[in-house]
Amino acid sequence: xxxxxxxxxxxxxxxxxxxxxxxxxxxxxxxxxxxxxxxxxxxxxxxxxxxxxxxxxxxxxxxxxxxxxxxxxxxxxxxxxxxxxxxxxxxxxxxxxxxxxxxxxxxxxxxxxxxxxxxxxxxxxxxxxxxxxxxxxxxxxxxxxxxxxxxxxxxxxxxxxxxxxxxxxxxxxxxxxxxxxxxxxxxxxxxxxxxxxxxxxxxxxxxxxxxxxxxxxxxxxxxxxxxxxxxxxxxxxxxxxxxxxxxxxxxxxxxxxxxxxxxxxxxxxxxxxxxxxxxxxxxxxxxxxxxxxxxxxxxxxxxxxxxxxxxxxxxxxxxxxxxxxxxxxxxxxxxxxxxxxxxxxx
Length: 346
Prior knowledge:
27% of the residues lie in helices and 30% in strands. It is α+β, with helices and mostly antiparallel strands.
């Protein structure tokens, strides 16, 4: 089926959301187990615990004995309270990564207390629309000394809806700022669940299926089962394997029966286009090493262009590191989600 479908459902009591694009699973969000692990996007009043000498970082105390790691910890002292937002999931045995650059994010607006100024998404090209949005933003923000980013979804939305969204994020940021002082760590805003994230971050779909059993109705259960496997089928009979190890994610590209350089380039380009989706749906991050199929060295630039374009549209921060001396390609991807194998309820 052509088009974009957002399916909202539950998997054994946990909220889940699936984005289906032209009949294929494009993104998958599953609520984390209720194990007390801080959720990405959550905002805490954290207490500085101890600096990490030589690294410039700071260990913070969170509620219930949890700890967080602030990369830029210079200028803070032990015992000092500060607002911290979770930026990713904690790896086993490590502190939760956080930032002090807190964002209050909704479907149309992002309030940025530490970065003043009103900005419009660059994806909104129409000048009349940009002027209209700026007028709404200035009217709602008034003299509040905080920044605001209007997202691309605001371009086609009703003025009152946009104004209401901005006002809600403005009021939340003001309330949290007033609650930032205190001597004990506290959760101030919980991280968004999959249903909220789907509404907030996925572009307007052609259909929203939110009735119980929507995953079964739209074949999501079968898509998830297929995604649990390592194999990713590509056009023309080619395929790749995406497999996670303790150290890295390994991607191996195969051309199938045709081993010519032209077939190699075709399979590699198809892999580059499919890789962001394969990593998203499997919840994989960290170091990623791709063993592309043999191709002519002069074709590397073309492949790099395809990779950049593919990951530019991906919501998870990914750095393209480049080629290794052995001819592999390396990427570094932010760990924002639990791997699918760990997030699926048993």
